[in-house]
Write a structure and sequence with these properties.
Structural class: alpha/beta
CATH topology of the largest domain: Pyrimidine Nucleoside Phosphorylase, Chain A, domain 2
Pfam family, one: PYNP_C
Largest sheet: 6 strands, mixed
Keywords: Glycosyltransferase, Transferase
Protein name: Putative thymidine phosphorylase
CATH class of the largest domain: Alpha Beta
Number of strands: 18
EC number: 2.4.2.4
Strand content: 15-25%
Distance between the termini: 86 Å
CATH superfamily of the largest domain: Nucleoside phosphorylase/phosphoribosyltransferase catalytic domain
Catalytic activity: thymidine + phosphate = 2-deoxy-alpha-D-ribose 1-phosphate + thymine
Number of helices: 18
Strand order of the largest sheet: 1-5-2-4-3-6
């Protein structure tokens, strides 16, 4: 790392209080001597140094009175990364060239990248050397089918090596992941509760949402604390057999969380990066056996069985190269699972299933038992064909609910999900049979309503394919935490009213 030259006068740090997500931003006045002497212009990438700590940040030039010529303003992420104290002084200079950007350019022009090149890219992303625009270029260059099997394997290794790893010193640590694209489908909290009730060790780490209205970490966060450090995770898993934590809080595959932030903005989740993301997190979390759920449906992320088979084959080959035991499960992705779409609404579905309430979504219950049963068989807890029945028994007996409560209490307590104050109901004008539900439109509406940033926001959809609907019956409800976001989502819904399609009832015979 090249230090800022000592000849430059130090600057007084000023905490601006601007949230720039993961982007490191600094603010200098146009009259600042450093800007003039170093030739900095707006959006320059600069090396910022203080007390042995260094970051590379994007420069914004200020012409007003936000900062004086002797000050440097820092966004919240930049301030926290430098761990600045009020009496600190800062020097700013040109950074050394980021060599790995040449590898990104090579990938843009179709060249294959090797292990060293991908490792260099990932390390520079984790070290904060890339601006969001550079990360976006890398993600786009690797999109579609632009990564070979060898590159996906190398990318997975690079993402593992750039962060911390957990070792549970056990012959079997089991985990699962759903590739997504199916609204609702919040099976993980239920599955973890069932498996730990059966004596298995399940240190579940999950991501926040990428292109969906909620990830498992977002949903669990409305119920309990998910920001656990390594010591807390180990203690909780030792005491209760499992946890439901956000992977970003324990720096497992930290590049993944940085990539996810940009993937969410681009609404991109390509196959190669999907495989590297999933497997890097599972291996870093110490899993030895992993089940991958691949929903298949016309408006799911994976739209055909042929695409599912191709994705499954990639998972198998990369997992084999990395020594991970894996099982693939292709499931029905033709419609949402559960009724809630969004963190709090999905949490309510999870609680209803675990507590065996009469109103609990039957499809979420069935799917969770299917996945848990397959994992019980994978772990040799029961014979093939008997896993699903064992999973149902753990639910019906209340043992899974007891485990879930124990996990939540160990993580900091069980909270009540928030309720949105603003709602809009879409009702049927005529009678009919539900013939199609567009998963992508539902996800879009839930995100426009505020999910997952607003935890109570989302969509509640009580109908399923094949249901008979009467006039004025509710097809879906939009939930929002503000009237503006509700209006935004309703406006979009009015332009896409076919999100739930009804087939007219047959005319009665003579």
């Amino acid at each position: 790392m090249i230090l800022a030259p000592e000849r430059m006068a130090p600057l007084e740090p000023l905490r601006i209080g601007i949230d720039t997500r993961q982007e490191l931003i600094i603010y200098l006045h146009a009259d600042c001597p450093v800007c003039r002497s170093e030739g900095f212009s707006a959006l320059s990438r600069v090396l910022v140094s203080s007390n042995g700590q260094h970051i590379i940040a994007t420069l914004n030039i200020v012409t007003g009175d936000l900062v004086s010529s002797g000050q440097i303003g820092l966004s919240e992420p930049a301030w926290k990364r430098l761990a600045l104290k009020p009496d600190a002084h800062i020097r700013v200079s040109h950074p050394a060239p980021v060599q790995s950007l040449s590898y990104v350019r090579a990938k843009v022009f179709g060249h294959a990248l090797d292990q060293q090149q991908l490792q260099s890219i990932i390390e520079d992303i984790v070290d904060g050397r890339y601006a969001d625009v550079h990360v976006a270029a890398f993600i786009t260059a690797c999109g579609a089918d632009n990564l070979s099997l060898q590159e996906i394997t190398a990318l997975t290794r690079a993402m593992i090596q750039a962060g911390d790893t957990l070792d549970w010193e056990l012959p079997m640590v089991i985990d699962k992941h759903c590739v997504g694209g199916l609204p609702g489908n919040r099976t993980s909290p239920i599955v973890v509760s069932i498996l730990t009730a059966c004596g298995l060790t399940v240190p579940k780490t999950s991501s926040r949402a990428i292109t969906s209205p909620a990830g498992t970490a977002d949903t669990m966060e409305v119920l309990t604390n998910v920001c656990l450090n390594r010591g807390q995770m180990k203690d909780i898993v030792t005491r209760v057999g499992g946890c439901l934590a956000w992977g970003g809080s324990v720096r497992l595959s930290p590049a993944d969380d940085l990539l996810i932030q940009v993937e969410r903005a681009l609404d991109i989740d390509s196959e190669g990066q999907l495989v590297a993301s999933v497997l890097s997190k599972k291996i870093a979390a110490g899993a030895t056996h992993v089940l991958i759920d691949i929903p298949v449906g016309p408006s799911a992320k994976v739209r055909s069985r042929a695409s599912a088979d191709k994705l499954a084959d990639t998972f198998r080959q990369v997992a084999a190269e990395l020594g991970l035991s894996i099982r693939l499960l292709c499931t029905d992705g033709s419609q949402p699972i559960g009724c809630g779409i969004g963190p709090a609404l999905e949490a309510l579905d999870v609680l209803a299933v675990l507590q065996s309430k009469p109103e609990a979504p039957l499809d979420l219950r069935n799917r969770a038992c299917l996945v848990a049963g397959a994992m019980l068989e994978m772990a040799d807890v029961t014979a093939p064909g008997l896993g699903e029945a064992m999973a149902r028994e753990k639910l019906e007996s209340g043992e899974a609910w007891d485990k879930f409560q124990a996990i939540c209490m160990a993580q900091g307590g069980l909270k009540r999900p928030p309720v949105a104050p603003y709602r809009y109901n879409l009702t049927a004008r005529d009678a009919g049979i539900v013939s199609a539900i567009d998963n992508r439109l539902l996800s879009k509406i839930a995100k426009l309503a505020g999910a997952p940033v607003d935890p109570a926001a989302g969509v509640h959809i009580p109908v399923k394919l094949g249901d008979r609907i009467e006039p004025n019956e509710i097809l879906l409800s939009i939930h929002a935490e503000s009237s503006g976001e509700l209006n935004y989502a309703v406006g979009y819904l009015e332009q896409h009213i076919n999100v739930v399609q009804l087939q007219p009832l047959s005319e009665p015979g003579p």
